[in-house]
Design a protein that fits this description.
alpha+beta, Laminin, 3-stranded antiparallel β-sheet, 1 helix
Length: about 100
């Protein structure tokens, strides 16, 4: 099928010399977000960082994934270790390295 624009910019569909109306135009599109933007309308922003404002990467949906040892909404708080368990682990290592003669 051949299509032409008339002088008044109205499109018509033509088969040979016969005009076939109405003309239907079908199309598909795909939106691709810029780097660092995610989701519907590219409205979610996530840029990986490793500084005083946060320590994280971003998943495919723009959600923050904290680096190891960091927590919080912006991955800006160090994870704490229970001091008793830390002392216990250190004490076990010391005892394990003692040789009795």
């Amino acid at each position: 099928m051949e299509r032409r624009a008339r002088y008044d910019s109205v499109w018509c569909g033509c088969v040979g010399d016969k005009v076939v109306d109405p003309v239907t135009l079908s199309y598909r599109y795909r939106v691709v977000c810029d780097a660092g933007y995610y989701g519907r309308g590219c409205s979610t922003s996530c840029l990986p960082r490793d500084d005083k404002f946060g320590h994280y990467a971003c998943d495919n949906n723009g959600l923050r994934i904290c680096d190891d040892g960091w927590t919080g909404q912006y991955c800006d708080r160090r994870k704490t270790t229970d001091s008793r368990s830390l002392v216990s682990r250190v004490a076990l290592r010391v005892v394990a390295n003692i040789t009795i003669c």
